[in-house]
Specification:
The chain is an alpha/beta fold. Helix content is 39%, strand content 16%. It has one domain: Rossmann fold (3-Layer(aba) Sandwich), CATH 3.40.50. Helix 3 links the parallel strand 3 and strand 4.
């Protein structure tokens, strides 16, 4: 599982995940801050990464668009608001558990909630 963390996810989480041996890149590290949601998903897809975001509605819509257009897509993992954004350790732990449980890439166009 390779993660790409949207800019609404604290970039420290990517650092924590990498220390645990999980391939993760944040939007900040990728130089993608202030990019449109479409550009974020295009970046994730071009790098064969699962998109991780809290922005549920826009990215579900974009996932459907990518499916309809037969564009590459490596999964969408949504972090619900039941995980407060300032609980960096909790989010990182949940993402580690998810990556360990689902070691392979997500099915293209799949959407899951953490």
């Amino acid at each position: 599982m390779k993660y790409y963390l949207d800019e609404d996810i604290n970039p420290k989480i990517a650092e924590i995940l990498r220390k645990a041996g999980i391939d993760a890149v944040s939007a900040r590290e990728a130089g993608m801050l202030q990019a449109r949601d479409l550009e974020q998903l295009e970046y994730a897809s071009s790098n064969q990464r699962c998109m991780v975001t809290r922005n549920r509605n826009d990215f579900i819509r974009l996932t459907v668009q990518f499916f309809n257009e037969h564009r590459p897509h490596y999964g969408l993992l949504i972090i619900p608001h039941s995980y407060p954004g300032d609980k960096i350790s909790d989010i990182a732990t949940a993402l580690k558990k998810y990556a360990l449980k689902y070691k392979k890439e997500m099915t293209p166009y799949s959407i899951d909630f953490l």
